[in-house]
Write a structure and sequence with these properties.
Blueprint: E1 2-3, E2 6-7, H1 15-25, H2 32-43, H3 48-54, H4 57-63, H5 75-78, H6 82-96
Antiparallel strand pairs: 1-2
Length: about 100
C-alpha cells in the first residue's frame, strides 16, 4: 500500500485462517454477527476440498466450535443470497468433517 509517499504492507489472513478465526469468534458474546461472517466466508470458497488439504487438526477442532452452522435453517444461512447459500453450506460441511 502507498499513501503520501510512504509504502507499507497490510497483513491479512488467508481465507482458511479467516474462516477458522470466525469459528472461534462464535464462542464470544454476541455470536450472531460472527456466524453471519462465517457463513459468508464459507460461501466464498471455490473448492472446499483444497482447503481441507491445508487444515491442521487444530483448525478442524476450532471449526467445530461453530457446529450450529450444520443446521441448514440457521439464521446466518438465511441472510445469504440464495445464489451462494448452498455453496456456503457445502463448504462448512466439508470443512467441519
Amino acid at each position: 500500500m502507498a499513501h503520501e509517499g510512504r509504502t507499507g504492507r497490510i497483513p491479512r489472513p488467508t481465507l482458511l485462517a479467516a474462516i477458522v478465526g470466525k469459528a472461534v469468534a462464535t464462542t464470544l458474546s454476541g455470536p450472531a454477527r460472527h456466524y453471519r461472517d462465517l457463513a459468508l466466508l464459507c460461501a466464498l470458497v471455490v473448492d472446499p476440498f483444497e482447503l481441507v488439504d491445508q487444515m491442521t487438526r487444530k483448525d478442524r477442532q476450532r471449526l467445530r466450535l461453530a457446529s450450529r452452522l450444520l443446521d441448514n435453517a440457521h439464521p446466518a444461512w438465511l441472510l445469504l443470497p440464495a445464489a451462494i447459500r448452498s455453496r456456503g453450506r457445502i463448504t462448512y460441511g466439508v470443512l467441519h468433517g
